[in-house]
From TrEMBL:
<dbReference type="InterPro" id="IPR018376">
    <property type="entry name" value="Enoyl-CoA_hyd/isom_CS"/>
</dbReference>
<protein>
    <submittedName>
        <fullName>Enoyl-CoA hydratase</fullName>
        <ecNumber>4.2.1.17</ecNumber>
    </submittedName>
</protein>
<dbReference type="InterPro" id="IPR029045">
    <property type="entry name" value="ClpP/crotonase-like_dom_sf"/>
</dbReference>
<dbReference type="InterPro" id="IPR001753">
    <property type="entry name" value="Enoyl-CoA_hydra/iso"/>
</dbReference>
<dbReference type="InterPro" id="IPR014748">
    <property type="entry name" value="Enoyl-CoA_hydra_C"/>
</dbReference>
<dbReference type="Pfam" id="PF00378">
    <property type="entry name" value="ECH_1"/>
</dbReference>
<dbReference type="GO" id="GO:0004300">
    <property type="term" value="F:enoyl-CoA hydratase activity"/>
</dbReference>
<comment type="similarity">
    <text>Belongs to the enoyl-CoA hydratase/isomerase family.</text>
</comment>
<keyword id="KW-0456">Lyase</keyword>
């Protein structure tokens, strides 16, 4: 399918990459871009050849937020009735294979929120994160006030949401928002390496791990631990569990069949 605001490609036969591509607007996120990204991720998710996905932007901007020009003239009734602007943003949450955000440059407002919707974030050393919506007379509208405190705690989330300041990659890693910081010219190599590592494991176990970690944000500890235990038990029904453990015991590399 031909897309206008994103580019897609497959690397290493198994990693689906979505590159946001509105360079003149610093990848500002409008409905068309978000629809296209949702379609592309759903297609990769449904493709048995694909084991992991990467969402990335340009060197200068992962995404500078929701498209301000597109929403500037909307009234309350417009945004409320149309569930604007974030109605089509949660598609990424329904994707069951892992999605890694490879972030360089600005990840602001909806751009930061989009990165946080991914399963984890690898940042280039020039990355800048922030929720500057307060400067526009609004607040984050795609989960920023909910996911940011879960990632970095209340103090920093309040600081970013109330002052609108940006956080550099070092601070973001220290705060727990990003899993690793790498030199800009190594961002895609490092992220692809992580994605291919994930693709090498049992896809059933990978999907279960993602589902279980995500469950920790939705449930209390006892329920979450019980959920994890049931998934753990269920994995003993897979041939990949037999293969992984037999390979370890016999000191050979495993050959997972993803079943
Ligand atoms: N929407 C629309 N256009 C945007 C944009 C956005 N979020 N961010 C940048 N652009 C456009 C600029 O208007 C400019 O276009 P022109 O060349 O046509 O003037 C172009 O991208 C380049 O931007 P700048 O000239 O401003 O570049 P800079 O390097 O001087 O500054 C920046 C970069 C600090 C990121 C600055 O562009 C900026 O502050 N952008 C807005 C960030 C923002 O407020 N994001 C939150 C949006 S609201 C939101 O996201 C709601 C939500 O929760 C879902």
């Amino acid at each position: 399918m031909a897309y206008e605001h994103i580019q897609t490609r497959v690397e290493g036969d198994r990693v689906g990459i979505v590159t946001l591509n509105r360079p003149k607007q610093l990848n500002a996120l409008n409905n068309q871009l978000m629809d296209e990204m949702g379609e592309a991720l759903k297609a990769f998710d449904a493709d048995p050849a694909i084991g992991c996905m990467i969402v990335t932007g340009s060197e200068k901007a992962f995404a500078a937020g929701a498209d301000i020009g597109a929403m500037a003239s909307y009234s309350f009734a417009d945004v409320y009735k149309g569930d604007y602007i974030t109605r089509n943003w949660e598609t990424i949450r329904s994707v069951r294979k892992p999605v890694i955000a490879a972030v360089s440059g600005f990840a602001l407002g909806g751009g930061c929120e989009l990165a946080m919707m991914c399963d984890f974030i690898i940042a280039a050393d020039n990355a800048k994160f922030g929720q500057p919506e307060i400067k526009l007379g609004i607040i984050p509208g795609a989960g920023g006030t909910q996911r940011l405190p879960r990632a970095v705690g209340k103090a920093k989330a309040m600081d970013l949401a109330l002052t609108g300041r940006m956080m550099d990659a070092t601070e973001a890693e220290r705060a727990g928002l990003v899993s690793r910081v790498v030199p800009l010219d190594k961002l895609m190599e490092e992220t692809l390496g992580a994605a291919l590592t994930i693709c090498g494991y049992s896809q059933v176990a990978v999907m279960a791990a993602k589902e279980s970690v995500n469950r920790s944000f939705e449930s209390g500890l006892s329920d979450g631990v019980m959920f994890e235990r049931r998934l753990f038990h269920a994995l003993f029904a897979t041939s990949d569990q037999k293969e992984g453990m037999d390979a370890f015991v016999n000191k050979r590399p495993p050959q997972f069949k993803h079943q």
